[in-house]
Write a structure and sequence with these properties.
0% strand; elongated; 4 helices; mainly alpha; 101 residues
Length: 101
């Protein structure tokens, strides 16, 4: 498998979109799928977003382990992941807390 960071940043980008747009996605799912409480959809979306952030970190660390990326590059990967991931996750958690009351 050729690796150049596409999987890691694909997971990161997906997690950001799901995390930031989770409220709109929850309303969309409520309107077009089962009439489940939108907060339940939001909780599932938050969990998916969080797991995708974790997957991007694990993916970067695994690639260092198998020498697909250099050890010097991992600090840049982790800096980008945590600089973007932590605020997006905190935002998603805040939105979910407001929805749940």
């Amino acid at each position: 498998m050729l690796y150049n960071g596409k999987f890691t940043f694909g997971c990161l980008f997906s997690a950001i979109l799901i995390g930031i747009l989770g409220q709109d996605i929850a309303y969309f799912l409520y309107d077009h799928l089962a009439k489940v409480n939108p907060a339940s959809y939001l909780a599932v979306l938050y969990t998916c977003s969080f797991l995708l952030f974790l997957l991007s970190v694990v993916s970067a660390l695994v690639q260092v382990r198998y020498r697909k990326i250099k050890k010097e590059t991992i600090s840049l990967y982790l800096l980008v992941i945590f600089t973007i991931g932590v605020p997006a996750t905190v935002w998603s958690l805040f939105v979910m807390a407001v929805w749940l009351g």
